Amino acid sequence: MTDRLAGKVAAITGAASGIGEATARLFVAQGCRVALGDIQADKGAALADELGDAAVFTRCDVTKEDDVSALVDLAVSEFGKLDVMFNNAGIVGAIGPIDTTPAEEWLATLDVLLNGVFYGMKHAARVMKPQGSGSIISMSSVAGVTGGLGPHAYAAAKHAVVGITRNVGAEVCGYGVRVNTIAPYSVATGMVADAYLHDHTAVNEAKKMLADESPLVNRPGTAEDVANAALWLASDESGYTNGLTLTVDAGVTTGAMPGGPRFSEYAPMQREAGKSGL
Questions:
Q1: What is the per-residue pLDDT for 41?
Q2: Is 3 inside any structural domain?
Q3: What are phi and psi of 247, to 5 degrees?
Q4: 172 near 129, Cβ under 8 Å?
Q5: Is the dihedral of CA 210, 114, 181, 39 positive or negative?
């Protein structure tokens, strides 16, 4: 199925690598024109050049509201409108026990993961509300829907993304704008490779590690899996979907685990006082 985003225009933060890059490539392949933003200027510009006339790039630090506003304005000035905003930029951020987490690292983490999403929603809404349509997509995480799967600042920010998605979705749906979020488990990207293997270039090694640990046998999560979720939320196929947190996690948040669930083999029923069977 092709041209699922034919005629649409998207802005993507964190677009130069990982999930953002995979999404940019997929969106263009599906007929979309994209404004790419990232602090990795060389990589972002190179990607835009590779994608041709369907893409433009600007340096965008999502902790700076003016940068996010400028990315939205670039999409409109170059392509005439904004149909999709993908608030994708992210970091792992502050790591460690709550009692040793530096306040400065906590605040810096929330600045990227939460304030950056707020700026993206705000400036997408100022364009989409008057035009009467649009899809705002943000990155949460499985760490944003359950506990124990990410560092504290990361988890707090990702929970907040779920909350603001629901709240903003309740506001702007009256203008024809939908707001949803994606919550992936660990996927094979440079960020995950750095977090687990301390080498952001070890993506293939991370993929093998994730395949070994996946509830789906030998199936790691990939950037393309998340990009496909973003494609559906960006397209008219999800036109009646608003306020959703879409997990891309092999079922981790619903109890799936490597090797299958406990009590997966038959045994006579257990009863009171050590008795078994009917």
A1: 97
A2: no
A3: -80, 140
A4: yes
A5: negative
What digits encode the pLDDT tens for the residues 215-258?
999 999 999 999 999 999 999 999 999 999 999 999 999 999 88
CA distance 249 to 168: 24
Q: What is the pTM of this model?
A: 0.95
Instruction: Report yes or no on 187 lying in a domain.
Output: yes
> The domain spanning residue 131 has which CATH number?
3.40.50.720
d(CA 127, CA 272): 64
pLDDT at 71: 98
Whole-number average pLDDT of the chain: 96
Quote the distance between the C-alpha of residue 44 and its chain's center: 18
Q: Tell me if 93 sits within 8 A of 108, measured CB to CB.
A: yes
What is the extent of the structural domain holding 222? 9-274
Number of domains in the chain: 1
- 1, part of any domain: no
Could you write out the DSSP letters of every residue in 107-166?
A: HHHHIIIIIHHHHHHHHHHHHHHHHT-EEEEEE--GGGTSSSSS-HHHHHHHHHHHHHHH
The residues that are catalytic are 141, 154, 158
CB atoms within 10 A of CB 201: 11
Torsion of CA 123, 126, 131, 135, to 10 degrees: 40
